[in-house]
Amino acid sequence: MTSRYTYRAMGPTGRVEKGAIDARDEADAFAKLRAQQLQPLRLNAQTGSSSPPLKLPFLSRHRPLDLEALLTNLCVLLRAGADIRTALGVLDDEGKGLKTAAGKILSGSTIEAALTPLFPAGQSHLGALIAAGEARGDLPSGLEAAAKVLAARRLIRQQLFEALSYPAFVFVTAIAALAVILLVVVPAIAPLLDETGQSIPAYFQVILWLSQGLQWGWAYLLGGVGLTVVGTYLAYRYGNFRRVLDLWWLGGPMGTIVRGLVYGGFARGLGDTLSAGAPVTDAIRLAQRSVGSDSARQRIDAVLQAVRQGRRLSEALSHVEGFPTSILKLCEVGETSGQLGPMIVRAGERSEAEALARISKLSKILGPALILGLGLMIGALMGGVLTALTEIGSVAGA
User: Fold this and answer.
1) Which residue segments constitute the domains of the chain, with CATH numbers given?
2) Residues 106-123: pLDDT tens digits?
3) 181 DSSP assignment
4) Which residues of 53-92 are buried (b: 16+ CB within 10 A; e: fewer)?
5) Which residues partner with 44 through β-bridges?
6) pLDDT band of 14, cuts 50, 70, 90
């Protein structure tokens, strides 16, 4: 199936031409224009075409999804015969960043140095994949490898969201139901119970105290929550709370899951960089930047120093507190077989998959547990309310 593409291209004489061309996809359209000795400057799918426009709106530092699309499209264009500056010009849509990158390349900068400012924070190790592809004369493969890393990270975030969204929804719904009972239902019943002239039962008196406390002190409650949030943020941002929380995540009840994700991501980045041809010490340093945990990064510092002193990577990693055993085993296999990079990538993927499976299993348990616990709480409140209504009805009928 072919689509129609409009283009702006420079001819052999330097004259800029406009027109349209039918092609299977962007790469095919680019190749056809080059066959006509035209240098594409802009290439867009025509309105109504089944294929989306190749140009993309980018910011100076791209979001991961945008960057993934950018790297993939660059790979497609380079394999179609474009040079890197032309490919960046085709993809640019008057956004900041791509023109700057093309200018750096024109002035003699490496492709890695030109593209690295576009990467999100903590993803600078992607530049090593691109640099390795550029060094061995296969830049498209380096761009493709970097895009695959971003795609894997996106899938992990998506799976985490899907696993935790249901328990979060149950919790918020239950809290809203409790608020309605205490703020609407109980205050409507209390005056009717007073009119009966009978003493209020003890269990309903407790519910009434909770309701009155929430009505009278909701402003203080919100203020306290706000102050707690602000104080926690300031302590996390400027104090030692971030380190305390970081250590708790790594060594607390959820430590197995957190370490699987943190060190699994590190292993994946390390293996990708090693597979791209980077030295071990450089690969460790670059992969370390992608680790979001400050405590985990500090633990990996010892690995870098040990490898520089001549120790094997598997031996150095074995001294990292809490480092997954499954990654260590595959690392040893990789060192023995000479396939260290691919084996560490596989180990990182397996560690992340196991952590996600635990999260999924935990979410399946947490959802029903929240429903049961909060359901019992709401049931107790509604039981007290219904009993009070029954007493009001019996007095009214007497």
Assistant:
1) 1-49 (3.10.20), 255-353 (1.20.81.30)
2) 777 777 778 777 776 666
3) I
4) bbbbebeeebebebbbbbbbbbbbbbbbebebbbbbbbbb
5) 6
6) low
